[in-house]
Amino acid sequence: MQILTVDVGTGTQDIYLFRSGVGLENGFKLVMPSPTMLIRRQVQQATQSGEPLLLTGVTMGGGPSHWAVRDHRAAGLPVYATPEAAQTFNDDLEWVRSEMGVEIVSGEEAASLQGVTHIELRDFDMQAIRQAFQAFGLELEPAVVAVAVFDHGAAPPDVSDRQFRFDYLQTRIRAENRLSAFAYLSPDVPQSMTRMRAVVASAEGLDCPLVVMDTAPAAILGATLDPAVGRCERVEIANVGNFHTLAFRLGPGGIEAVFEHHTGLIDPMRLDDLLESLAQGRLTHEEVFQDHGHGALILDPRPLSLEEGAFGVAVTGPRRAMMRDSRLRPYFAVPYGDMMITGCFGLLAAVAELVPEAAGPVREALTGAGTDVAPWDAES
Question: What domains sit in the chain, N to C, each tagged with a CATH number?
Answer without folding.
Answer: 2-32+126-219+340-367 (3.30.420), 35-121 (3.40.50), 232-333 (3.30.420.40)
